[in-house]
């Protein structure tokens, strides 16, 4: 049995707490590795190494830091297949999807190569007689991030790439369910030229997270995961005086207007609803056709497409559409919610409960499910299922459809499918959701825009990646400077306007 490590101060170190969690191969259901769960002392060891290394890294000019990022991009491309294989083996997602996970992180690293430009400050020449004002963006110091299981490459890179490009040290506490790729990324960053101690990986559970929340040296915390934990981390981190951004769960609605291209809408729903077994925070989990006639046409198009979905292990390469869910526990929870949907009166149009795969009987596979006639009071509507289950809520009008998306407690992503520019424009303007797609089902913004949800899907002021990330990982310092002759004439006691 493989025993995984932490990556502290440039070295793989064994866990010393004596506590471990199981890392499964979701396709077979076997435990393939043990992940060490750090103690408070192990976290403190990493923080001390980060504190010692960070000032020299902050003093390295931004262009040199950017060159490390550039080299890291090259190494990611070099090792793409190796990383994707390790990712699929622990997460279960298909091989092409694992590459997408790495690619979407890599693109944020590419954005961070622009650090010299992005870190340029502001300057006001002659704000007063002989007076200039300038603002600098300075790194925070030691920063930390806590990431979920569902994007073990992308989300760590969304955090550590801007943090490092800005001159910080970063401690990553990845998900204990798939920690191997984060460890590989830390090694690759050092191969790219990052000094030891600047990027460390400390594996763990709540003990490690609490150690981050309470450590007085750590200046900022990024979190991505479920909403209850996001709220907990935001509250405790903020009350400890840290800068915190937390991104939580989701229930993303796709509105299908009567004039939509129904084939296009159905294809989009298949990818967005069932891709990655529905384990994406930007998955579409609710289809909202407007009008019964639209709903009937949509269901008619969806059913044959769903029945054709190929579910299997990542080792089947391009021959599978989605893989198993991450753990047996996740599978049990999803099946429990499906039962609740039936009990609460929804119509199960496609039933994947009996799905079995020969040779993989113990894997965590869940067949695809489609519900119709779902209503807002049902658990399958209020809760995030995070599985291959699409719910259809029929709306009587556009306003009713809009209201559904607006009244849901989550506000991560949403989409509208229509040929009517006016409806699309109205939807984008009014909906209280952070990321909107117009005939685009998973509107994940590219690296140079920002990513973040509203309502219970996001806590904090700044989004991930794009310009917000450079604000999140720096502090502004503003200098007012005067070099006149005659400054030595004596003190001035009044608070002066700069005239
Ligand atoms: P999770 O909340 O269970 O775990 C996330 C992280 O928090 C992990 O590192 C975990 O070790 C840690 N953690 C778990 N329980 C904790 C506790 N009690 N105290 C302190 N730390 C704890 O989430 P997950 O199951 O890994 O990921 C799936 C969730 O993440 C879904 O809700 C999904 O929507 C969400 N997600 C959101 C986004 C976004 O950008 N909004 C992106 C990806 C995933």
Keywords:
alpha/beta; seven-stranded mixed β-sheet; 499 residues; 39% helix; Aldehyde Dehydrogenase, Chain A, domain 2; binds nicotinamide-adenine-dinucleotide; globular; Aldehyde Dehydrogenase, Chain A, domain 1; 2 domains
Radius of gyration: 25 Å
Q: What would the principal axes of the Cα set say about the shape?
A: globular
The portion of residues forming beta strands comes to 15-25%
Number of domains: 2
Number of helices: 16
Helical amount: 25-40%
**Which small molecules are bound?**
nicotinamide-adenine-dinucleotide
Can you give a write-up of this model?
This protein is α/β, with parallel strands linked by helices and 499 residues long. It contains 16 helices and 23 strands. It has helices spanning 40-59, 62-78, 80-91, 95-112, 115-118, 154-165, 180-191, 206-214, 227-239, 262-274, 292-307, 328-343, 379-382, 398-407, 421-430, 466-472, and strands at residues 2-3, 6-8, 11-13, 20-25, 30-36, 122-128, 131-139, 142-146, 169-173, 199-201, 218-224, 243-247, 252-256, 284-289, 347-350, 369-372, 389-392, 410-411, 413-417, 435-438, 454-455, 458-459, 474-482. A seven-stranded mixed beta sheet has the order 15-16-17-14-13-19-20, sandwiched between helices. The protein has a six-stranded mixed beta sheet with strand order 10-9-8-11-12-22, sandwiched between helices. A three-stranded mixed beta sheet has the order 1-5-4, covered by helices on one side. α2 (62-78) packs antiparallel against α4 (95-112), α3 (80-91) packs across α4 and α10 packs across α11. Bound molecules: nicotinamide-adenine-dinucleotide. The site of nicotinamide-adenine-dinucleotide has 26 residues, from α8.
